[in-house]
Structure formats: C-alpha cells, structure tokens
C-alpha cells in the first residue's frame, strides 16, 4: 500500500529494494565461477531452477489463495510462460557466451541490458524517453565500458562473433523479460513460482538433450543453492516488487550498479585493489540514478506549476 502523501513505503521503494538485490547479484559471478569448475552450464541451470521450484512449492500452498486462479485468463498464463522463457534464455545465452569468449567481453556486452530495458519500455509499457533518462543510460553505459576496459578501448577486441551475438541476445532477453514482468498484475508469489517452473522445464530439457544428470558434491550443492536463492527465490521477489512500483527505466539505471558491486565483492574476497579508472567508472555509474531521479523531481515540479 502507498502512504497517504503519495510516497512509496520502504517495502515498495526501489531505493531500498534494488540495493538489496544488487548485493545478492554481486555475489553471483564469484559463486558461479566456483560451481562451473565442476558442473557444466546445463547442470547448473537444472539445479538452480530445480531448487527454486522446490522452495516455492513449500511456500506457495500456505500463502496463495488457489481460488483466485479461477479468475485468471489464458493470456495471464501465456504472459508468465513468456517471462519464464526469457528468464531461461537470459541465463542460458549468457553461460553459452562465457564458453566462447573471454569473461570481460561477455560481461561488457551483457551489460547492455539496462539500455534494452529502457528501449523496450517505450513500446511495451508506454514509458516516455526524456533527456534525463537518456543521460542516465549513457552515463551508466559509459561507466560500464570504462570499468570493463580499464579505459583502454584499443585493447578490447572481439574474439568470436558467435559468442558476442549470444551475449547481446542475453541482454535483449533480460530487457524483454523485465518489461513482460512489469505487465503482470497477478499475485507476485504464484507468478514467480510459475515463471520458475517454466524455466526449470526448459533447463531439464536442455540438460537431458546436451548433458547428463550428475549429483553435485556438498560444496557444489551449496554454491548452486546460493545461486538459486540470490538469483531466483529472493532475486525474483525483490526485482518483481521493484518493477511493480517503479518505472522500468529507473530500475534499468539501478542495474548499472551490477558490475561495480561485483567488483567490490572481488576486492573483498580476493584482496584486489581498485584502480583510478575503477573509481571514475564507479562515479559515473553511481551518478546515473540521481540524474534520472532529478528528472522525475523536476518533471513533478513542472506539473504542479502547470496545475497552479
């Protein structure tokens, strides 16, 4: 529920939800690297989505009013099936890109997804582009490029066009996923459960077709369990809730923090030092959200003046 003064409650505010989500997302790269040393991408997807389905299956019966499903239409289920498809494609394409091109190259191309979120929000959710949103996107992307290349663009070369296309398609998938999720107005918990079920079915089919079922060790299971909790169970909940109460373009600006948060985890876990370029990149990324917020505040001020 919104407060009477029109402001969002803390549990609905993207300035609370998204930082929590980014802390979870920031741990994904390091954990994934450890898990992929023993399991292939198909197995990781299978266990990650499988754990998500099991966790939701334990929660849903006690929190969902099943009678409400009778009022759902075919289009509601179709929308969630589409969300599940693009959620699966994002993870699948991104992991496939990692197998073909260097991690830096894949990450840089994948971090185009905030731009696709903003671009797809215009036709899919009727959001309008303005100079503040455009500046926010450009600042975030510039910071991402600087962070990934360390300021040496000449040293960044494309090594495999197939891998590059896969990484870009992963970014496109997340942009479509985000805007489809924003269209969903049904119960958040059951929606997340159904999306995860679709992703799990596709993951199981992929593993059976191109890999094999392997029981992970205790350490690998712990890693996959954390990936499921941070990426799916807690991750989806925080992301969907933020999208429900905020413009997709604002959420896109927050996602530019992802590479910076990931870098902080690497510094903390591996004791690496930040360079001057890392600091400049961080400032660009961190400034992108206030720029868009400034545009929102100024726009609201102009509306009040027009009404008066």
Automatic annotation (TrEMBL):
Keyword entries, A-Z: Membrane, Transmembrane, Transmembrane helix
Lipid bilayer topology: Multi-pass membrane protein
Predominant subcellular localization, coarse grouping: membrane
Domain EamA: 15-148, 162-289
Annotated TM spans: 12-32, 44-64, 76-95, 101-122, 134-155, 161-181, 188-211, 223-243, 250-270, 276-295
Superkingdom of the organism of origin: Bacteria
GO terms for cellular component: membrane
Localisation: Endomembrane system
The family this protein is said to belong to: Belongs to the EamA transporter family.
Name of the molecule in the record: EamA family transporter
Species name: Paenibacillus montanisoli
